[in-house]
Amino acid sequence: MHAAALCAGAAAWLVVAGRGQGRRRAAELFAGGAAESPPEERWESGRRRLQVWLSGRREWLCLPVALVLGVLGESVLPMAAGAVAVPLVRRWLRRRKLREDREHRADGVVDLCGAVVGELRAGREPGQALLVAVRGTGALGVAEPGVSAAARFGGDVPGALGQAACEPGLDGLAGVAACWRVAVDGGAGLAAGLDRLESSLRAERRRREELRAQLAGAWSTVAVLALLPVLGMGLGAALGADPLRVLLHSPAGLVCLVAGGLLEAAGLAWAGRIVRAGEAV
């Protein structure tokens, strides 16, 4: 059964590789028989294609790891665990991607404030300055059309900015909307208000980066604690024991495996919650 699973994985890999090779041959044929690339270029091209392919499918790496463990331990439990881990890892990767996108948008708001201030001091009108800054920075994402339309046609710019501030990571646009409203209603200088807002947002970003650097050691400790069971199993195998057979083929081993997995998950969740609470301070 394990040999059949291994052969099925190898066949799937050969099919994918064969399709890629066929596409490359077709491209060379229609290109008029261009000269073959050097081995270094082919290796670099293949490495880049593999990185692009894995960039959105990293959770599927759980399956080959589980397959190897299943073959070594002669059990289907690792493969079942790998199948269960795929959606969990996908969810974790998606949450991390959303957090990175949110931080990238927050940094874009800071750049937008600086760009608007620069355009205003260069003599542009507020609406035109905002329009040029939005196009130049691309910081608003899906909220860009509404803000650009309001700035171009003289619409409710503070309202458009306030609506865009509801998007994740664009909270700083609420301050931009407030500065804009005060400048229009009270006649205050928009450039001075946005300059102070930019300084405040940059200080907040520096504080977040410093806090993340201080918590890097805590995250490293969490990662080391997560790898300790794997290191223990490797040490047991190096001493001549067979930890996989004990864990997967004996009642006591299965009980220890389930209990250890639950304790490991609870410990990681607890440690991660502590560190995330520190990041939120």
Give the overall shape, derived from the CA principal axes. Answer: elongated
Low-confidence spans: 2-6, 10-22, 25-35
Portion in beta strands: under 5%
Please compute the radius of gyration using only Cα atoms.
Answer: 27 Å
* SS field, number of helical segments: 11
- How far the N terminus sits from the C terminus, by CA atoms, comes to 52 Å
Q: What sequence of helices (H) and strands (E) makes up the elements?
A: HHHHHHHHHHH
- The total of beta strands comes to 0
Q: Kindly state the mean pLDDT as a whole number?
A: 76
* Secondary structural class: mainly alpha
Helix content: over 70%
The biggest sheet amounts to:
none
Protein architecture, described:
The chain is mostly helical and 281 residues long. The protein contains 11 helices and no strands. The two termini are 52 Å apart. Residues 2-6, 10-22 and 25-35 have low confidence and may be disordered.
TL;DR of this structure?
This protein has 281 residues and is mainly α. The chain has helices spanning 2-30, 39-55, 62-73, 77-121, 126-137, 144-152, 157-164, 173-186, 190-238, 243-249, 251-279.
Please name the defining characteristics of this protein.
mainly alpha; 281 residues; transmembrane; 11 helices; transmembrane helix
